[in-house]
Amino acid sequence: MNGQSTPSLSTDLIAAFVQLAALGSLRAAAESLFISEQGLRSRLLALEERLGVELYRKQRGLRRRTPLTEHGQRLLPHARSFLARADELSELFREDSAPQEINVVASQYLIAYVLIGAIQRFHAAYPQIHVRLSARTERELEAALLGSFEYSLGVAAPYESSPDLEYRHLFSMDWSLITPARHPLASRKSVRLRELIRYPLVIYERGSTGRQHVVEAFQQSGLVPHVELEATNTDLIVRMVEAGLGVAVVPLHASGAVTRGRSVKIVSLGRQVRPIHSGVLLRRGEPPNRVTQQLLEFLGSELVGGS
């Protein structure tokens, strides 16, 4: 193919298209790129002209899941890959010793009980790479990854897997009952869900993966739990149980960090509640750059299997 037959494509044009796909509207995409809507339209029209196809729907009408045409959806994974490769090219001649940063968005549970220790060990192995952690709920996390290139990856137990994100499994966790130290069930080695409905239950907030798993388990057994309190994260739930406000069903990481130093008792539930799977989320079709790949490989070696 000679140079005349190859369209001239810039990262500005491709980024405009990718942001429109991620955010779903011209206004949101323009704001994310700090340009006007007209400036965004101009970039998109220029890209369509150079490729010779229509990439997004111009007319107003019924709200669709995506504004992209069939050609646009076909282009999207290649466009994300184009930007990722451009990012790699910009770093190609950067000194290896120069400080580099990776922005990671993760659930509060995984930051508190899993990632802090893992990132500490990563820093020891790669002192020139700085990792910035931001806490989000599972739904907020997916929106952050799709709405901004600021974040390189997410670590979570996905509430619902978005088709625009790739999930790479790291580890699974089983669920246990935690009770106050002097609770009637505290001395038991195991307990059935039907035995819990007589006690006040502390549960995760609505819209979380944790709540979904617990409620589903009770429903499948034909049971209605006595929900007393709701909490946004596991640390609050453990504190509430410790204070005698109820019992709770929580996932416990193998490190024991969740209940360490707390005056609570752990009772086995076996496999009555579906295990919770946690892993890495990446934008589909966007290959991770070299630095991100180093972190992915490190997390894989550290965390696979629930260690």
Itemize the secondary structure elements and their pairings:
Blueprint: H1 11-23, H2 26-33, H3 37-51, H4 70-91, E1 100-106, H5 108-125, E2 129-135, H6 138-147, E3 153-156, E4 165-173, E5 175-180, E6 200-204, H7 209-220, E7 226-231, H8 234-242, E8 247-251, E9 264-268, E10 276-283, H9 290-303
Parallel strand pairs: 1-2, 1-3, 6-7, 6-8
Antiparallel strand pairs: 3-10, 4-10, 5-8, 5-9
Helix pairs in contact: 1-2, 1-3, 1-4, 2-3
Your description of this structure?
The protein has 307 residues and is α/β, with parallel strands linked by helices. The protein has three domains: 8-91, Orthogonal Bundle (Arc Repressor Mutant, subunit A), CATH 1.10.10; 100-172 and 277-303, D-Maltodextrin-Binding Protein, domain 2 (3-Layer(aba) Sandwich), CATH 3.40.190.10; 175-274, Periplasmic binding protein-like II (D-Maltodextrin-Binding Protein, domain 2, 3-Layer(aba) Sandwich), CATH 3.40.190. The chain contains nine helices and ten strands. It has helices at residues 11-23, 26-33, 37-51, 70-91, 108-125, 138-147, 209-220, 234-242, 290-303; strands at residues 100-106, 129-135, 153-156, 165-173, 175-180, 200-204, 226-231, 247-251, 264-268, 276-283. The strands form two sheets. Strands 2-1-3-10-4 form a five-stranded mixed sheet, sandwiched between helices. It has a five-stranded mixed sheet with strand order 7-6-8-5-9, sandwiched between helices. Strand 6, helix 7 and strand 7 (226-231) form a beta-alpha-beta unit. Helix 1 crosses helix 3. The chain is elongated.
